[in-house]
Write a structure and sequence with these properties.
By secondary structure, the chain is of the alpha/beta class. Helix content is 45%, strand content 7%.
């Protein structure tokens, strides 16, 4: 009796647990493992559960971490290596190694055998999707989708709004799966129209604009270095959002540091003169500290850029040919604006109030690049600092 109590109460070392786990993987019965380690059967149950999970010994995909790889992760942590160095050793992505460590106790408590047991148990699928189980969570996700929030914005918002409620958290990938993947369609299919692309699958898009030959252009290579690192506010990117047959357009401006959006009403066309006048009027409404530079495409609508600089004091820089990525913030914003102003539609029907409404909608969405602040919040902080 005393021996049994001692064996049931003993603590196995990590090395012993690993050896036991290997015996489990080999299919050895629990009584034999208990005898081999001079332990009671109950002590083995406490480590591996009341009975061996069949998922532990099932054949696994090569895409999943093996027990040997998990042991290498454990050794790397003991040696004080970084996640990236461990990942390089294994030939795995750093994110894979990071998820493995953080999901199994963190760097100080990670154990290879425990991670492998957990992975095996998680392989016992299918499970009812979280959004199908939780009606409150599903309702909140659907409500924010109808407000044109992206899945990533929704995920971050839920974490911030319900910090102590795990049941009200969901990853952006889960939201996409609930919309698109057969068998996980716990969200209404028609909500895909609320996503930026409005499609169930993303496909590459390309657009080439006719390149105007403008005189006196100052190229982006001559732009001040402070613009690139986004540390200083007041540097803007701009472009035109084109409507049907290029007869209608909306001017778009994005501040690089805060991602704050302003839209230009162009009801009478987008000639160089009209674009200059609309730009100058809007830019001159800003505090002087927020009027530094403007980066634009090479379109003919900027034919009066020199006069614009004289009127406002804002220097204009032009992207290289076929290089829209050089105004990445503005390109991304134009993509978001297509949720409100679809391609192939007449943009002249939208008045200035509508443009202000859309800009406000974008400026009050949380952004990952801003630490999940909204552009409006970041812009307000910047204005307060310049006063």
């Amino acid at each position: 009796m005393d021996k049994t109590r001692r064996s049931e109460g003993r603590r196995f070392s990590d090395e012993e647990r690993m050896l036991m786990y290997r015996r489990v993987l080999e299919g050895c019965p629990y009584p034999e493992i208990a005898a081999e380690f001079d332990s009671s059967l109950n002590a083995i149950y406490r480590v591996f559960g009341a009975r061996r999970d069949r998922a532990v010994v099932r054949r696994r995909s090569a895409l999943r971490l093996s027990l040997e790889e998990r042991e290498e992760i454990s050794r790397g942590l003991t040696q004080g290596l970084s996640v990236r160095m461990i990942a390089e050793r294994l030939g795995r992505a750093p994110s894979t190694v990071s998820r493995e460590i953080n999901g199994n106790g963190g760097p100080t408590r990670y154990r290879a055998w425990r991670g492998d047991v957990r992975a095996a148990r998680l392989m016992a699928r299918p499970r009812t999707p979280k959004l199908a189980r939780n009606k409150v969570l599903r309702g909140e996700v659907e409500r924010l989708l109808t407000q044109l929030w992206s899945p990533q914005q929704i995920s971050a918002h839920l974490r911030a709004t319900y910090p102590g409620d795990e049941g009200m958290r969901v990853s952006h990938e889960t939201i996409y799966q609930a919309l698109f993947i057969q068998g996980r369609g716990s969200l209404r299919r028609e909500l895909t129209a609320c996503l930026r692309t409005g499609r169930a699958q993303r496909r590459p898009q390309g657009r080439q604009k006719a390149q105007g030959q403008l005189s006196g252009m100052v190229m982006i290579s001559e732009r001040p270095a402070e613009v690139e690192d986004r540390a200083v506010p007041g540097h803007w990117e701009g472009d035109l959002l084109m409507g049907t047959a290029n007869k209608s357009a909306i001017g778009t401006l994005v501040e690089r540091k805060t991602r704050f959006v302003m839209l230009l009403h162009l009801p009478h066309g987008h000639t160089a003169e009209r674009v200059r006048e609309a730009l100058a009027e809007r830019i001159q409404e800003l505090p002087e500290a927020l009027r530094r530079t403007l980066t634009w495409d090479r379109g003919k609508e900027m034919g009066e850029h020199a006069r614009f600089t004289v009127d406002t004091g804002v220097r204009v820089f032009f992207c290289d040919p076929r290089s829209p990525w050089q105004r990445g913030s503005n390109e991304n914003t134009n993509g978001l604006l297509r949720q409100y102003f679809p391609k192939g539609t007449d943009l002249s029907i939208h008045d200035e109030a509508k443009l202000e409404e859309v800009a406000d909608s974008l400026n009050t969405r949380p952004r990952q690049t801003l630490g999940w602040k909204t552009p409006a919040e970041a812009y307000a902080e910047t204005v307060a600092m310049t006063d």
